[in-house]
Amino acid sequence: MVLAAALATAVALLVPTAARAAEPAAVTATITPGAFPLIRAGQPARIEADVTDHPGALRAIADLKADLAKLSGAQTPAKDAPVVIIGTIGKSAAIDALIASGKLDVSKVTGQWDGFVQQVIDNPRPGLEQALIIAGADKRGTIYGAYDLSERAGVSLWTWWADAPVIVRKDAFVSPGANVQKPRVKYRGIFLNDENPALYGWANKTFGGFNHAFYERVYELTLRLKGNYLWPAMWGKALYDDDPLNAPLADEMGVVIGTSHHEPMMRAHIEWERHGSGRWDYAKNPEKLRDFWREGITRKGGNESLVTVGMRGDGDEPMSEGTATQLLETIVADQRKIISEVTGKPPEKTPQVWALYKEVQDYYDAGMRVPDDVTLLFADDNWGNIRRLPEPGKTRPGGYGVYYHFDYVGGPRNYKWLNTNQIERVWEQMKLADDYGADRLWIVNVGDLKPMELPTEFFLDYAWNPDAIPLEKLPTYTRDWAAAQFGSDHATEIAALLDGYTRLNARRKPELIDPSTFSLVHDREAERVEAEWADLERRADAVRALLPKTADDAFFQLVWFPVKASANLTRLYIAAGRNRLYAAQGRLGGAYVQADLVETLFKRDAELTRQHDAIAGGKWIHMMDQTHIGYTSWQQPDRNTMPAAVRPSPPRAPLARIGVAIEGREAAVAGAAELPVLHRYGAPSRWIDVFDTGFSPATFEVSTSAPWLKVARGAPDPHGDARLEVSVDWAVAPKGLAWAPITIKGVTNSFTITAVSDNPSRQPAKGAFVEAGGIVAIEAQHHARATSVDGVTWKTIPNLGRTLSGVAAYPTTAGPSVPGKGPALDYLIDFEKAGPTDLTVFVSPSLDFWGDKGLRYAVSLDDAPPVTVNIMPDPSERAWNTAVADNVRVLTTRLEVPSAGPHRVKLWRVDPGVVFQRLVLSRGPLSGSYLGPVESVRR
To answer: What torsion, rounded to 10 degrees, do the Cα atoms 757, 758, 761, 764 define?
Structure first.
């Protein structure tokens, strides 16, 4: 059965869409006219290469041979097997001969950095009828050509790093045509950072440290991902210093080594502690620092590198309290002098980068400049929001780049444990970078690398060719990624799981969740969040049961574990919140049940980690060692700490008394209370919880005299508390407002809860969102009309944000629009009455990448003049902390509704880069729920 499933998966994985099958050099499971048999009847093609080619290219070619052996199940090709000829232009006699004969056209790749061509050629040489040719423009071009073919034939890039199975296949054919590829972004890389304790523990256990055996795996993965640049692990580690083979191996394999934004001149931070002398302060210790830097440039020798220039304070801190522009200009000038002296060449002959990270951007904003050959590396705010970009069309020889984050140590909270990065948000931000010409260098902080597999591959794919992933193809990216790991049979469902857990985690990083995050009394928020996670868990279990055993290790680490662990942590904190709420309400039995649940879920977290340590025979032990429960500040706790669980002391003489809690308020009811309104177009029901104040099941009777009011009693919870669902029979309910008492009678006490219904006599306008109880909530993509002006149009980015999607205007390089005259989103709303209402707009926490006036939009009601809103009205660190922690900015504007009935609310484009997620109109303060009210009824 497992074998049958594996074979079905193999066939499904290799069958491309009709569009893909028509692409040049597409790899298919069925033969087409002129196709090349890469694998036929289980026999792989022979690989031919010139032994004089680059050693790094020969490594990748050897990997291709091994990959084809795994795919075909045959270790050695037959002597008469079809031939793949692969090599580097100018380093392979066979490739050069094909070019000289005119049989291979390399005009589109010659001289193109990292470029390659794959093409089926007839009669490439005497006695050979057909061959697949892979020609690299340079060493890495050949490497990418080899790995690209392997990937498209069915070998996951994550075969080693995530145990994705290689499924044996009988046939694989390469269709005719030339597949020509070259990258958009020149340097495309990852930064291993914040690597203690997880990556540190795993690397030491597996390899004995961050040595060449470890880095060989990192380099290979980087190249398979079509990356070419690495900032190595640096907290207490030094690539050059820790193992003398690390750097030469990188150069041989084709990976450009750099050092991070605060480690200049090819020296790791820890090396100053090991070998430096005096203070890390150029104003007071310049000679020692120059000697230190000189050794870094000397040591790198001829290794291909991108040298970081500039300086930050010791330990990745600011260099000074002020903006030390003159000092930093002196530092860069002195560093370039060292580079020139050591290399014997003008400094511009050595690639350099200046990272405008944190306060260093202030120097740039204050007017500091570096020579034009130095790449300016702009940065995000550590939370995925790009801080600055070049002016559209502005160029410089060194170009511009972006340093991005999937992981961070710092305020308002570390986030290091699991993937919380939506590829949709990465797309939206990095499209800005591409649109504005920041295409020399893209590097992303991936933390421990695992479990950032999906966003890391997406980031590097997008860096390679942004045009290949337009918005229209974004929804299929995760599905295709899932198919590459597990086959296409369950790829759609696996993609939904990946996108689903990432969206829920992105709402608020797991490290930021606490017992008060999700409301227990408003909008049924905690229950809705729990239900979302429970649904993902159920579906993850179902898919896991269907996959072959050979895919289980990969599915566990890539899908099942993050879903289960994230769900468990969220449920843990909700239970802790309920425990505290119930204790405060005098709900003793319920408080004890929730305390027990907190303990169970905390233990479950440790058990899940133990299971992760055990997969693949213990291959990934320590990789989930990152602490994530019990934060009390921005810094991670030393160990996971269970949230405090309250167990109130029972009364000395317990009485048979009941208590009541109702929707919309935290305090227990004292005798009588009124439920939130039941509106015909609002929430279908309101709840009342009835509980025993001791440890017995609640004993009570409930009644109401209103014939239009329905009170349904649900099954008791584990302690015996009961929830009553109160709803209205609208067919017989009175028009307008009506009140009806509900009597809840216990053995020794009773309560009166008043239900309020609102049954409007007027029918709402067709197509309008209906105000109910003073609230209208709308997802941004559910507009009635989207107006384009001068080629600027609105596009929906699916899955982006906290609830459904994001809506933004494109192209982003279009200048500002005049409020009231530019593109607009139009929402039809049926209001209950005239009067003031607050329009609260939820936008992604983007930053002013222009650096002058903030990012703006405008709002209007009907034909009233638009009101312009800056999405960053408060530039304080406190406001930024709130925005990135909430993963949204919330802006409120007062509007005046002229009359009851339908009206149009408009959101106007002013500046590019604003992403709308949802809007809420309210007659009073919004409830205390984190996500806000559920979307309103639309007629």
So the answer is: -130
Q: Give the pLDDT band of residue 322 (cuts 50, 70, 90).
A: low
Length of the chain: 939
Residue with tokens 């204790």: 583
Cβ contact 581:588 at 8 Å: no
Give the per-residue pLDDT at 718: 83
Query: Which residue in the block uniquely carries the two structure tokens 């990959």?
Result: 67
Q: Quick one: 924 exposed, middle or buried, by C-beta within 10 A (0-12, 13-18, 19+)?
A: exposed
Element (H, E) at 119: strand 116-125
Contact present, 157 and 64 (Cβ < 8 Å): no
Render pLDDT for 6-61 as a digit per residue (tens, 0 to 9). Answer: 333 343 345 444 445 568 999 999 999 999 999 999 999 999 999 999 999 999 99
- Tokens standing for residue 342: 């050591």
Write the pLDDT tens digit of every residue in 218-234: 999 999 999 999 999 99
Q: Does residue 691 contact residue 589 with C-beta atoms inside 8 Å?
A: yes
Which amino acid is located at 686 in the chain? R
Beta strand 43-44 pairing with 678-679? unpaired
Crossing angle of the two packed helices 588-618 and 561-584, in degrees rounded to 10: 160
C-beta of residue 167 within 8 angstroms of C-beta of residue 423:
no
Contact 195, 204 (CB under 8 A): no
Q: Token pair of 331, please?
A: 């530092």
Mean pLDDT of 345-371: 93
Structure tokens at 771: 């105000």
Reported as a single tens digit per residue, the pLDDT across 654-667 is 678 999 999 999 99
Rg (CA), the chain: 31
Neighbours of 197 (CB within 10 A): 15
Between 361 and 858, name the one with better pLDDT.
858
The string of DSSP codes covering 411-465 is: SS--B-SS----HHHHHHHHHHHHHTT--SEEEEEEETSTT-HHHHHHHHHHHH-
User: What is the structure's pLDDT at 98?
Assistant: 98
> And the tokens for 580?
């505290």
Beta strands in 126-175 (DSSP E): 128-136, 172-174
Other beta carbons within 10 angstroms of residue 608's beta carbon come to 18
User: Would you say 536 and 563 are in contact if contact means Cβ atoms under 8 Å apart?
Assistant: yes
CA distances from 650 to 586, 647, 696, 697 (A): 10, 9, 12, 15
Q: What is the dihedral of CA 335, 339, 342, 346, to 10 degrees?
A: -130
716 half-sphere exposure, CB direction, 13 A CA radius: 14
3-state SS, residue 104: coil
Q: Are 605 and 572 in contact (CB under 8 A)?
A: yes
Cβ atoms of 114 and 144 within 8 Å: the answer is yes
852 pLDDT tier (thresholds 50, 70, 90)? confident
CA atoms in the 13 A half-sphere facing the CB of 821? 4
Q: Give the distance, in angstroms, between the CA of residue 860 and the centroid of all CA atoms in the same chain.
A: 33
Nearest to 217 by CA among 196, 199, 194, 234: 199
Tokens 């903030």 sit on residue:
854
Band the pLDDT of 4: cuts 50, 70, 90.
very low
Out of 247-251, 292-296, 428-432, 649-653, pick the least confident. Answer: 649-653
- What is the pTM assigned to this prediction? 0.97
